[in-house]
Amino acid sequence: MDARNQECKPLIVVGLLVLAVGLAGLSLARPGGTFATDVLPASLIAAVGMSLAYIPAMMSALSGMRPEESGLASGIVNTTYQIGSALGLAVMTAIATSRGAAELGNLPALTGGFQAAFIGAGAVAAAGAGAVLALLLMRRPKRAAAAEAGDQPEAVQV
């Protein structure tokens, strides 16, 4: 089980960094830009980063679970993802609004507000709650580490 967890760590870190690059690309959108040049390439990069990070994170979260606990663990991970996304969206909306996105008739101010939000989201993905924390704090499950050390739990007869 820990082998899968250890394989996931680099994918999660790289995925979050790729996501940060995509979000940084979105922050470069210009008021007079086009979808094909200013939004599409960065969106595709961000989508690759999200898929590189989310799927291995789910696998890693479930790798240390017993089969009978996997449904509950999956539900908790998905709930955490949804709540975190909602909170992140609220914070980024507040940043965008405070930086000019509330000025709907003023295209440069609107764009500047969204640029600030994308920079904030990229910073979170790269450093705050993302790649750096995954790199530093993600560890192997205790059961797998104990099994590797030879501390196999005794079998219980029923």
Q: Would you write up a description of this structure?
A:
The chain is an all-alpha fold and 158 residues long. It contains 6 helices and no strands. The chain has helices at residues 2-26, 35-63, 70-101, 107-128, 131-137, 142-148. The chain is elongated and about 55 Å long. The two termini are 25 Å apart. The relative contact order is 0.17. The mean pLDDT is 83.
Helix content: over 70%
Beta-strand percentage?
under 5%
Radius of gyration: 20 Å
Structural class computed from helices and strand pairing: mainly alpha
Give start-end ranges of low-pLDDT stretches: none
**Span of the ends, CA to CA:** 25 Å
Along the chain, the helix and strand elements come as: HHHHHH
Biggest sheet, open or closed, and with what strands and sense? Answer: none
Task: State mean pLDDT (0 to 100 scale).
Answer: 83
Q: Helix count, per DSSP? A: 6
Shape: elongated
- Report the strand count: 0
Summarize the structure.
The protein is 77% helix and 0% strand. The protein has helices at residues 2-26, 35-63, 70-101, 107-128, 131-137, 142-148.
Q: Key features?
A:
158 residues, mainly alpha
SSE inventory with pairings:
Blueprint (H helix, E strand, L loop, with lengths): L1 H25 L8 H29 L6 H32 L5 H22 L2 H7 L4 H7 L10
Helix pairs in contact: 1-2, 1-4, 1-5, 3-4
